[in-house]
Amino acid sequence: MTSLIAKHLSLGLAVFLLGLPVTTTRAQWLPPNPEPEPEPPPPELCAGGPAIQDPFYAPLWSCDQGQIDDMWSQFELDADDWASFGFSDPCNYNMPLGRLFDSLQLMAHASVDPPACSGGPDNILAWSYCWAAGHIQITTNCFADPDREAEGARILDDDVELFASFFDDSVVGRASVIMHEARHVEGGCGHSDDFDSIFVGPGGGCLRGASCDGAYHDGCSGFFSSSGKGANAYQVDFLIDFVAHSRPDWTTPDIRLHAALLANSLLETAFYSDPCFRFEISGNTVGGIVRPLTSQCEIPPLTGCEGFPPDMLPPNCIGPGIPRQ
Ligand SMILES: [Zn+2]
Fold this sequence. Notes:
It contains twelve helices and five strands. The protein is mostly helical. Residues 1-29, 300-304 and 308-325 have low confidence and may be disordered.
């Protein structure tokens, strides 16, 4: 009996509490502008295309937890960035994070040479992972800039931001883009057309329309930038070394061909001055490097430009490797 009364009493109290003050309380706590938050675009916009080469690479590292931890800390990945893009499903290469992981694993493990950490002239593939990790942290913005794959610049921080089309690139293509962006950050290397709107090399222009470097050996532009190879040359060199020095179990003839075609495309279109070498490709077979010599090949820096004011340089002084001062 006691418990029944108590039950009725508590029920009556609950009805009383629920019934009386609800309207007033809600009115007091409504936000001043109760506009609903805009719905974010669906994550399918990022990594919405088919996974290219991921089905080959993902099993090679088996979504190893130690590797995930290493990538997470080395590239300073942030849970907030990836919350909607694979954080809770990192082994799924149909999500952006899984695709990034496959490309970082290629950089870490695909070399026939043992991994190294400092940049050097030989086999970028061996030092790409550690070198890039030492210079960049990776963030993503799947809803920005559909025309570019990524952005990295040494201005305020060492962020490399990945955009939607990055994730629809191939595994080896994505890895080469990371090397490209890391060179922007590490060397302060901008593209020639970012810093000099009238830059015209012997090749006559930037065939891909933007983000071209002056010359293969001299493509680093910007205030306080390094000298030497720029972002496009680093990307090309990574692809070259992938073709030449990747472990047989970390590549296939098709993937090597893909990398060689990608390198040739950059050599063809991403330099004002044609570097004048290409992979020799016959049918589906990649040969060595060939050097077709044409009138538009990269030429050594010209001399005799000293003493002219900036707006009166002779035309032959405006070219790759020529300081315009
Ligand atoms: Zn770039």
